[in-house]
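Morning F.,

Quick status update on the modeling queue. The single chain you submitted on Monday has been processed. Sequence for confirmation:
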Amino acid sequence: MINFNEPILIEKAFDHLRNAINNKKLSGDGEYTKKCNAWLENWCGASKVLLTTSCTHATEMAAILADIKPGDEVIVPSYTFVSTADAFVLRGAKVKFVDIRPDTMNIDENLIEAALTDKTKAIVPVHYAGVGCEMDQIMEIAKDNNLVVIEDAAQGVMSSYKGKPLGAIGDYGCYSFHETKNYSMGEGGAIVINDESNVEMAEIIREKGTNRSKFFRGQIDKYTWVEAGSSYLPSELNAAYLWAQLEVADEIFENRMNTWNMYNDAFQALKQAGKIELPFIPEHCQHNAHMYYIKTKDLEERSKLIAYLKDEDVNAVFHYVPLHSAPAGIKYGEFVGEDRYTTKESERLVRLPLYYDIAKGDVEKVVDRVYKFYKNT
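Structure tokens below.
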């Protein structure tokens, strides 16, 4: 079976894990957490980046920092993972779902203003597949209406929009280092703080509401509970595992990009024949080859293709079920406007196997089986 995903492993990780254990500092914010934070800050140019236990928790931190309260409204695309909405629902906010663009699968920036009310507090663009949303227009809307922008850049490490790293454009950004992402710590994430004035509060929230970070920097002689917070600090072992990948981040990027390009080149004939649609990358966006997907004619054809590939030992999968159609989405949210594309496009999308160091022969087999399917349909 050709797996849809295989967790990345860089051999140097074993040395880093051993070193972390020998350092006798496993609970976080040790050598490796600081190295990962610094690398991410250097890459994206933010005031501060802090590793977290997940991208979900990074988004929860952003919701707290943005002072989301009961009765507030937050605008998100319906085509996203549940965590995008959960972080704000937990704060008592109502989620206002907006339709997506059919080309990038990102939130339609032209529909955001119609969803605004006097209760709107934040916009949460989701950079699907590591392809940037139209951030210039989104930031302009936010500025004109005094709104916070929290980028869900879970899939966006090493991607950019008009030369600006994803996650470092809005007020806050959230990354994922889940095992399915380009760079992984098993479970983990990071929050990007772009305004330096918010850094101290972010550290306090992340450290259970205490000013412990200032204590360890020698800025205060004791630490105490100063604000409501939680434990969003990952283990040093997770950070050590991630650090081995960040050391060779460009190599991983190129490896995945080569696979993405192999798929994209190979499927041009099927695209020209009108059998499938391929990913669209705007010229001003640099993506990171997080995923490769194709779009079938409809849901029925997608189901048949996935079943056929499974019989051929290829594990291809669909992706999100739109949140507005889920029980919790109905309970905590509202779709604004017409669902022209969210449901229709989500039902057509098939994700193909793509991970670091996938064998060229496996990619060729996937391509061959997709062609055989369409030859017989």
